[in-house]
Amino acid sequence: MEYLSIEGGNLTDITKNPILEVKNITKHFGGISALKGVDFELYEGEVLGVVGDNGAGKSTLIKIISGVHKKDSGEIYYDGKKVEINNPMDAKRLDIETVYQDLALVDELDVPANIFLGREETYLGKFGKVIGLLNYKKMYIDSYNLLIKLKVDIQNLYNRVKYLSGGQRQVVALSKSVFWGKKIIILDEPTAALGVKEARNILDVIKLLREHNISVIIISHNLQHIFNIVDRIMVLRNGEKVGIRNAHETNADEIVSMITGAKVVEKV
Asked: According to the model, what pLDDT value does residue 125 have?
């Protein structure tokens, strides 16, 4: 598939192969149809925005991809191969990471400890982990180099993350996904409750993820942020995919009309 993205006012050809294909996904909760045959493709190095009103099915869709919910029917293909994602570990094995609004950080630990949480560096392999011989120096250096690569400024990495700002906490969660080689990162409202400067920093980090060929799915109610960062926009309404638009070929009026079901009124 060929399409164009817009970055800094320049059109860029990003012809890619799909890394993720979702076909005819359905999900019911009792008598409620949360998803009704949703399908889409995600390409390598693409940033795909998913928008829709409350109850449109956005959260259900990403929870199926991340293994929190099981689909009722439909198929998922990763790198061209059909896969089953029945739990979060299945998603992680496919290098799919989801960063939710709660970020899943441990407040009482510092930045390197959060980035390496569950996969700590030790001096004596698994035995060293059992007896607590953690290599804090290596974890600090690797974390520092990672944040430099992502152009993130956190002055003291030894600060417990509960003392970091909302934007810095979001970056730590993103950095953890990048460090462990995730190929697809799903972001649930990453700029919610952030100030203008911190939100801009998060968007800059997402742009860097694209440069490192990481694919991103971003859910957001902020259309300004969506248009600033994404290549394509997928609109969901009442559990159905209304359509997908190339970001440079549409505008906020059309996207809002797709979200609400209203017709676009032509300006005279």
From this structure: 65
